[in-house]
User: Which sequence fits this backbone?
């Protein structure tokens, strides 16, 4: 199969829980042998989507295809799709080694004990759990449990592994390390990872392809760069947590917002008029400085030091919070006084304008 | 300040509770060492002896007091309790497993099962006997009608125990097994069952003890051959001798032995249970 061929395909998947529509007519083509990250806020239906693909739940309507086969009516244990749970769901009564060997030992395929043991040992080495084989899950740390969960899944050599917020239960330090490791492990095996997360940084960092899920619909999918630089809707921009969004009114060739009226050259189709500027494109100026574009007066609230950059929080006259991200490689940050008023500005060419009217 | 008045009251309460719980058994225990065969079931103790224990096992010279006719009844009751235990536990586990998913009429079925505990026992026994004799045409025996009433009686207890256990059970380990290509049946055997085993033990203990000393339901349903509680009751109608007390002490010791076995088996699976708890804490 060529790389661009899809590993699984969703056709008009809908899943309802009573009055709630968890998945709303989703169609999605998942590229093969890639790291796909699915970004969505809690309640967007991302776990439902995974559970439907895994076969733990049936969709109300729609079909699921996996490796060219319709698997909609196939029970979970006949699908050959791996699943890594957020809480790991290790078998508490079995050792690390037996957890990893579980699928081979209890599966329908005839595998000799010698082969099971050697494959399980390979997996132990792949995820770096040597020496812990005889421990039980309550004797190992969260990061180690994560590795057991992964090894237990990968030993079955699935072509698709679903990961349900696999890093959510780990502390920040470990999360960063597991991110890299997950990507490395995936690249070594011919397997697609579908990783569901509520963290925009995680989804952008890990995905070869990023899909954004909102209220049961996939509202955008593409490379991390595409998603990050050109969000297709204000909702996507909001989830990315990297854009200042302003409501306003779009007319023929200008946008009227809290910062006055600015000329607009390109407009993304959207029912609501929204003006978006990335945090790191927004800059703060003192009164009287020369401005690159529109002027938005705002009061300084506080700042947050993130190591490589500083995020400063400002508040406009109508109590809207605006963030300014200053990367320290661009020079030392300015000192702002709390409560003092500054002028926020940006180059209008860097703004993204959403609106119902398409500019000429 | 508060504890100064409250503590003594609570202490007296606990003492009274323990007295009422164990008092009868202690009296019974003491009287079982009454002298025999002349000594009766009353104080004072004429002379301490183990006569009635020997009498129980037929080790005393023949006297006017007939040996307690319990040998066969005991075996019968043990067999019946064992059969009931196995059947009620299997049914209880299966029913509780079914209730993990909401199905149509789940509420009604739940109350129908639980109400079974509350139906007056004598009437159930009588009703089952009439049904068996007159409608179905089955002879009344301890292993037919009495067995059915025992299962009907103990099943709700086993069901409730298992329901409580499965309620706290995290189903994601089962889903994990399925996603590894393991069939639901094998998943139940290899994952679910080992994890709910402490609960299964409790359900078994409930069913066994409830069946072992069941009286009202068995009264009509057991037919010709009596179970142990019926046999003992039968001896009361003639005259009460301390041999019954000696027997009571023996069965109580047997129950303690049973509890010890339960405790050991529980202890073995406690480590497992701890592991589950730890994993639940993390999630």
Assistant:
């Amino acid at each position: 199969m060529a790389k661009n061929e899809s590993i699984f395909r969703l056709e008009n998947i809908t899943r309802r829980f009573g009055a709630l529509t968890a998945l709303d007519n989703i169609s999605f083509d998942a590229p093969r042998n890639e790291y796909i990250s699915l970004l969505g806020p809690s309640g967007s239906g991302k776990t439902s989507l995974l559970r439907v693909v895994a076969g733990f739940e049936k969709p109300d309507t729609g079909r699921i295809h996996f490796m060219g086969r319709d698997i909609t009516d196939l029970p979970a244990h006949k699908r050959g799709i791996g699943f890594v749970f957020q809480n790991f769901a290790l078998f508490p009564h079995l050792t690390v080694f037996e957890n990893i060997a579980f699928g081979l030992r209890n599966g329908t395929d005839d595998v000799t004990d010698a082969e099971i043991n050697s494959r399980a040992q390979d997996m132990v080495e792949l995820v770096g759990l040597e020496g812990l084989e005889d421990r039980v899950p309550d004797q190992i740390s969260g990061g180690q449990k994560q590795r057991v969960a992964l090894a237990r899944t990968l030993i079955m050599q699935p072509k698709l592994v679903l990961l349900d917020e696999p890093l959510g239960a780990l502390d920040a330090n470990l999360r960063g390390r597991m991110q890299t490791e997950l990507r490395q492990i995936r690249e070594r095996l011919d397997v697609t990872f579908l990783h569901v997360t509520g963290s925009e940084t995680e989804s952008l960092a890990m995905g070869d392809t990023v899909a954004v899920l909102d209220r049961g619909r996939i509202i955008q999918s593409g490379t991390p760069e595409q998603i990050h630089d050109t969000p297709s809707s204000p909702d996507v921009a909001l989830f990315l947590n990297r854009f200042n969004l302003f409501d306003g009114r779009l007319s023929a060739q200008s946008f009227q917002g809290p910062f006055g009226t600015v000329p607009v050259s390109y407009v993304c189709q959207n029912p609501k008029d929204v003006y978006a500027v990335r945090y790191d494109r927004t800059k703060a100026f003192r009164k009287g400085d020369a401005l690159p574009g529109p002027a938005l007066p705002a009061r300084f609230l506080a700042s947050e030091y993130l190591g490589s950059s500083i995020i400063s929080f400002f508040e406009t006259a109508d109590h809207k919070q605006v963030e300014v991200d200053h990367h320290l490689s661009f020079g030392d940050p300015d000192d702002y006084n709390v409560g003092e008023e500054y002028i926020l500005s940006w180059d209008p060419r860097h703004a993204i304008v959403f609106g119902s009217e398409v500019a000429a | 300040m508060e504890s100064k008045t409250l503590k003594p009251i609570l202490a007296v309460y606990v003492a009274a509770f323990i007295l009422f719980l164990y008092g009868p058994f202690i009296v019974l225990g003491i009287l079982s060492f009454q002298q025999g065969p002349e000594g009766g079931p009353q104080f004072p103790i004429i002379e301490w002896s183990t006569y009635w224990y020997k009498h129980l096992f037929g080790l005393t010279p023949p006297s006017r007091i007939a040996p307690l006719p319990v040998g066969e009844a005991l075996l019968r009751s043990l067999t019946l309790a064992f059969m009931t235990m196995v059947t009620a536990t299997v049914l209880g586990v299966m029913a509780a497993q079914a209730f993990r998913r909401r199905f149509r009429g789940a509420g009604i079925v739940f109350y129908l099962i639980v109400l079974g505990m509350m139906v007056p026992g004598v009437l159930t026994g009588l009703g089952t006997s009439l049904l068996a004799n007159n409608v179905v045409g089955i002879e009344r025996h301890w292993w037919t009608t009495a067995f059915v009433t025992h299962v009907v009686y103990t099943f709700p207890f086993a069901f409730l125990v298992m329901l409580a256990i499965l309620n706290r059970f995290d189903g994601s380990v089962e889903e994990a097994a399925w996603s590894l290509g393991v069939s639901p049946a094998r998943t139940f055997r290899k994952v679910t069952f080992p994890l709910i085993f402490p609960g299964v033990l409790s359900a078994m203990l409930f069913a066994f003890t409830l069946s072992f000393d069941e009286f009202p339901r068995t009264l009509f349903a057991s037919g010709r051959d009596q179970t142990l509680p019926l046999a003992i009751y039968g001896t009361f109608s003639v005259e009460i001798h301390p041999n019954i007390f000696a027997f009571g002490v023996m069965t109580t010791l047997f129950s303690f032995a049973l509890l010890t076995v339960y405790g050991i088996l529980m202890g073995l699976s406690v480590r497992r249970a701890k592991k589950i708890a730890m994993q639940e804490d993390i999630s």
User: Anything to note?
Assistant: Chain B has a mean pLDDT of 85. Chain B touches chain A through 27 residues (CB under 8 Å).
